[in-house]
C-alpha cells in the first residue's frame, strides 16, 4: 500500500471512530445536548484530532448522514422503489436508524399522542372488519402501520397545500391508492 | 341560565383563553421553552387563575389534546377510516395541527434530511414511470406523500419488530397494499 493510501485509510478510520462515538452517546442522550469534548472522550481522541476532521458536531453529523445517502444512491432504483425495507437492510446501519428514530420519537410528543390514538382506532376498526370478512392477507399490525403512515403524510401534505387541493380530493386519492381488494378480499367498499 | 351553568361556562371560557394563548406562543416558540408566566401574560390572566385550572403547562397541553381526541372520537368510525382528511377538516383546529406539525418538523432534523432525500428519489422515479406509461390518475406529489409516509411508518415498524418479521415479508406486504393498477394503469409490476 502506498503512503498516500495509508494516510487516506487512517483518515477514514479516525472519522468512523468519531462517528461511532457520537452514535454511542446518542443511545442515551440527545444530539443537541452533546459537546465536542464528550464526543472526543467517548472516541478516546484528542480535541485537536476532532477539529482536524470536523468543524463542529453538526459537520460530524452531516458526514455520517452523507455516508448513508451515498449508500442509498448506489442502490438500484427499482429495488429502492419496490423493496424499500430490504434496501435499507442491505446497506446496514440498522443501529443508526434505530437511534435516529428513538431520539425523534421523544421529540414527537404531540403527534405521537395523536398518532397512537389514531392507530388504536384504526386497529379496532380493522379487527371488526376481520370479524365480518375473515382474516386479512396482511397482518393487521402491518396494515395499521402502512395506513397510519400514509395518512399522516397526506395530512401534512394537506396542511401545506390546502389552498390548491381540498380534503375530499385527497381522501378520494387515498382510497384509490390503497389496495382494498387485497386487504379485505374485495368485500368492503367506502 | 342557572348560576351553576354560568360558572361552568366561565370555566370553559377561561380554559379556552389560556389554551389559545399557548397556541399563539407556539407559533414562534417551542413548547419546552415556554413558562407558565409567559402563557399567563399572553392570555392576560393572573398566575393564580392559571393554577386554579391547570397544575402546569403539561396539564394544559393534555387538556387541549383531549379536546381534539374527544372530537375525533365523536366522528363516525367509517368516515374516519375512509375519509380521514375530511374528518380532520370537519373538526376544525387546523391551526393547532399546523403548529404541531411545524414544531415537530424542526425537531425531526435527521429523518427530515433522509425523508427529503427519499421523496426526491421517489418523485424522480414516478416521473420516469409517467413518461413511459402516461399520466397517472393521482398527482405525483400525492403519490409521493402517500408512499413515503407509508414506507417510513413500515420502516419504524420493522425497526421495532425485526425479530418477528423480516424485510422481505414487509416489502411484499407493502407491494400488496399499494394499488398499482390505479397508479400506473396496471402496466408496471415489480
UniProtKB/TrEMBL annotation, chains A, B:
The superkingdom listed in its UniProt entry is: Bacteria
Give every HTH tetR-type domain span: 12-72
Q: What keywords would UniProt list here?
A: DNA-binding, Membrane, Transmembrane, Transmembrane helix
- What are the DNA-binding region positions? 35-54
GO molecular function per UniProt: DNA binding
Q: Which Pfam families match?
A: TetR_N
Q: Indicate the transmembrane segments per the record.
A: 137-159
Protein name (database record): TetR family transcriptional regulator
Amino acid at each position: 500500500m502506498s503512503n498516500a493510501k495509508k494516510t487516506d485509510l487512517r483518515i477514514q478510520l479516525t472519522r468512523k471512530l468519531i462517528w461511532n462515538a457520537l452514535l454511542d452517546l446518542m443511545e442515551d442522550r440527545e444530539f443537541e445536548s452533546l459537546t465536542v469534548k464528550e464526543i472526543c472522550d467517548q472516541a478516546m481522541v484528542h480535541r485537536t484530532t476532532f477539529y482536524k476532521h470536523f468543524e463542529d458536531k453538526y459537520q460530524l453529523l452531516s458526514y455520517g448522514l452523507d455516508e448513508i445517502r451515498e449508500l442509498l444512491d448506489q442502490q438500484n432504483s427499482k429495488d429502492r422503489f419496490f423493496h424499500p425495507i430490504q434496501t435499507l437492510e442491505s446497506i446496514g446501519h440498522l443501529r443508526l436508524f434505530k437511534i435516529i428514530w428513538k431520539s425523534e420519537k421523544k421529540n414527537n410528543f404531540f403527534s405521537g399522542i395523536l398518532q397512537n390514538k389514531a392507530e388504536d382506532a384504526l386497529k379496532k376498526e380493522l379487527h371488526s372488519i376481520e370479524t365480518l370478512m375473515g382474516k386479512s392477507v396482511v397482518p393487521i399490525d402491518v396494515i395499521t402501520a402502512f395506513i397510519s403512515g400514509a395518512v399522516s403524510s397526506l395530512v401534512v401534505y394537506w396542511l401545506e397545500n390546502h389552498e390548491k387541493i381540498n380534503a375530499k380530493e385527497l381522501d378520494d386519492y387515498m382510497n384509490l391508492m390503497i389496495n382494498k381488494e387485497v386487504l379485505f378480499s374485495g368485500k368492503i367498499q367506502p
